[in-house]
């Protein structure tokens, strides 16, 4: 469980794209209160500069709030950063920022090595994580030889190898072509089925709306929408995010139309 | 092309990194001890063998091309005089041999880099140098080898961006200024993002290091390394 209570994040003048307060500082996240239960598939939606990336970076202490608290599994993040970063795995918007080793296996092993796991445990985690993203036979491949979609999957595997309770993916579809998007979506569907809590940060909900249990929409650093996808869709186009023309809640067979949705490539 | 680890099954890939480090240390010592053409000829064979045993070739040396003009011009500068006879061949020859010695060391280093994963280098250093000093050195090596390829790619991207918008017609000095400014900006941004990524993945000063074990092939390598060190020491005692 992630508990966000009254979190506010400010950056110095010019440090972000949100609105400025009276002191000239940019308020990226403004008094946000939110809970993310275990096992939930949550979409954090919003336009560029709405504060969604800053907010999720408070979940594992990469950004320290100026006000408010964030607790993961009941422990304040500031009290135990390693525990928070183990419990909340993060996949960055550009996987090139995240991949730090020359080969797939070495990169996925990087996190477990830092946690001090035994060699047998590291091997098991690497095998499991690569299998989860359908790259079980690619352990020895060079990172430099991978496509964009494959790098995204290795980045996801690197986060999964930490065996997090929550997996945060920041704009996971940016720059991916359709096959790569489908591949990542399939992996997310598998993770959801396996009970992993997934938080997808995105301004384009076409691929993931049907997978979600809940949608939180942000605007100007504040929560503007917080509802189940069927109820949230009416307000989402007003947040300048891209939504499908209709979507099917995973496995239900029932399609929900979305007013103002994208008719070009909805699921 | 950036010289970095290349997965493979060559003999050098199978060696323990500590063996390879000893060979490198021995080679450097011998290269500084034996500066005669004959000595350097023998070391040339050894350097080429090291790179070949790592599955490498002349293309790997292209990474070091920035150093080549410096190595080539050094003998000219050393031989030049302000007055008659204007150029002293013996001085140029001595410096030329020294430049060649550096080139040989780069060849051996290329063999090491392409056959050794960064984390194995880190493990070898931390096991060879105990305590916080070893952790500091090992972490430094790991970060440098992770950061440099990214930085180089950023500089290339900055240069391409300048050229794509007609910057190729600008004077060399202006182009260098543009690439340097963009490169420095990107380097800071890259360092920031790399630091964030390492934090997110619980970067530790003392992680679980890969298993290292000396195998049958390591003993000849250790003997070569020790022999080179001994040969170098013999010249000064």
Keyword list:
heterodimer, A: 267 residues, alpha/beta, Rossmann fold, six-stranded mixed beta sheet, 7 helices, globular, B: mainly alpha, 0% strand
Poorly predicted ranges of chain B = none
Cα shape of chain B: flat
Assembly level: heterodimer
Main β-sheet of chain A, in a few words?
6 strands, mixed
N- and C-termini, Cα separation of chain A: 30 Å
CATH H-tier superfamily of the domain at 40-46 and 78-244 in chain A: P-loop containing nucleotide triphosphate hydrolases
Amount of helix of chain B: over 70%
CATH topology of the domain at 40-46 and 78-244 in chain A: Rossmann fold
The helix-and-strand class of chain B reads mainly alpha
Uncertain ranges of chain A: 263-267
User: What's the domain count of chain B?
Assistant: 2
Query: Secondary-structure element sequence of chain B?
Result: HHHHHHHHHH
N/C terminus separation of chain B:
43 Å
How much strand content do the residues of chain B show?
under 5%
Q: Can you walk me through this structure?
A:
With 267 residues, chain A is α/β, with parallel strands linked by helices. Chain A has a domain at 40-46 and 78-244: Rossmann fold, CATH 3.40.50.300. Helix content of chain A is 27%, strand content 26%. Chain A has helices at 52-59, 81-87, 104-114, 119-132, 148-160, 178-193, 229-232; strands at residues 2-11, 19-20, 26-36, 41-46, 67-72, 75-76, 88-91, 166-170, 197-202, 214-219, 222-227, 246-248, 255-257. A six-stranded mixed sheet of chain A has the order 7-8-9-4-10-11, sandwiched between helices. In chain A, strands 2-3-1-5-6 form a five-stranded antiparallel sheet, covered by helices on one side. In chain A, strands 12-13 form a two-stranded antiparallel ribbon. In chain A, strand 10 and strand 11 form a beta hairpin. Chain A is globular, with a radius of gyration of 18 Å. Chain B is mainly α and 237 residues long. Chain B has ten helices and no strands. Chain B has helices spanning 11-14, 17-33, 37-53, 58-61, 67-79, 89-115, 118-128, 131-164, 172-200, 218-234. The radius of gyration of chain B is 21 Å and the shape is flat. The mean pLDDT of chain B is 89. Chain A binds chain B through residues 60-62, 82, 85-86, 90, 92, 94, 96-98, 100-103, 106, 109-119, 122, 140-142, 144, 158, 162, and chain B through 4-7, 117-119, 146, 150, 193-194, 196-204, 206-211.
